[in-house]
Amino acid sequence: MSEHVGVIGLGSLGANMARLLAEDGYAVHAYDLDPARTAAAATTPGVTGHNSSRAVAENSTLVLLSLPQSEAVAAACLGPGGVIEGAARGLLVVDTTSGYPERTREIAAELAAAGVRYVDAAITGEEGGAKALPKRALTFSVGGSEADVAQARPVLDRMARYVFHVGPLGAGQIVKMVNNMVSSAAGVAAIEGLLMAAKHGIDVKMAAQVLDKGTGMNFFCRHPDFMLAPGFEGGFQLGLMTKDLRHMSEFARRSDVPALVTDHIFHLFELFVREQGYGADILRQVDVMQKWAGVQLDGTLLEGP
């Protein structure tokens, strides 16, 4: 393949994007604020490490962003040494960050003035994005113009099982916020209900099967081992999910939609972060809820009040 693709942000998702695309024959240009991550990515044949977002843009016709939040995107695109300084007119930026849609549109408008096009392609997956990407089984929720999404799609298809063009720029991130709110609320409800079953001596895996084949179906009932295996990691940070829920709460207010469930789940996740730390894995919410309930999901009673 002759296409040169940039990847900015080389955490667990971005590093795997760079690796998979290089394996498929793309010339990949990679950069992360952490030089060690850039160096590690460059050990993959076909991946060239760079020392700035600008250098990535100078060498690419399409740039993927995999960053923690919108302000990191603004810095990578518009700040010193950013994409805007190195982009040729017509460059396409594909932002996979779970960002805030209004901020995304502002960043895109500044890039558009320099002739740079923009698509938001938020990530989820049937097992969560971190576990789905190595299997090329992501689900992308994409916002942007028909032409821009059509150009991005061959690259997204390399990493995805499903690619949904859900509307104009920002729509992909709106649907991702909705997804994360719904999955978080359903997950807390499932953990709470299954802890109740455990406290009454009911096999949690069996109870989860009933929910999965009934109207209580959700992610944790489909994958009970995610809850039951001590220390199991889902590959996403509690703090980042809390950030997404905060965005959803703010966006609901701007949209004049009651945020009854959103606000409650957001505040619960704030408590989870207070107990476990911002960088703790998403599944540490199970540990907190087990402590609160005084029982583990395997039925072991915990000491204390």
Give me the strand/helix succession: EHEHEHEHHEHEHEHEHHHHHHH
Oligomer: single chain
Mean pLDDT over all positions: 95
Q: What is the molecular shape?
A: elongated
CATH architecture of the largest domain: 3-Layer(aba) Sandwich
Instruction: Tell me the span between the first and last alpha carbons.
Output: 62 Å
Q: Biggest sheet, open or closed, and with what strands and sense? A: 8 strands, mixed
- CATH topology label of the largest domain: Rossmann fold
Fraction in beta strands:
5-15%
What's the number of structural domains?
2
The helix content, as a percent range, equals 40-55%
Number of strands: 8
- Side by side, the strands of the main sheet go 3-2-1-4-5-6-7-8
CATH class of the largest domain: Alpha Beta
Low-pLDDT runs: none
What's the CATH H-level homologous superfamily of the largest domain?
A: NAD(P)-binding Rossmann-like Domain
Q: How big is the Rg?
A: 20 Å
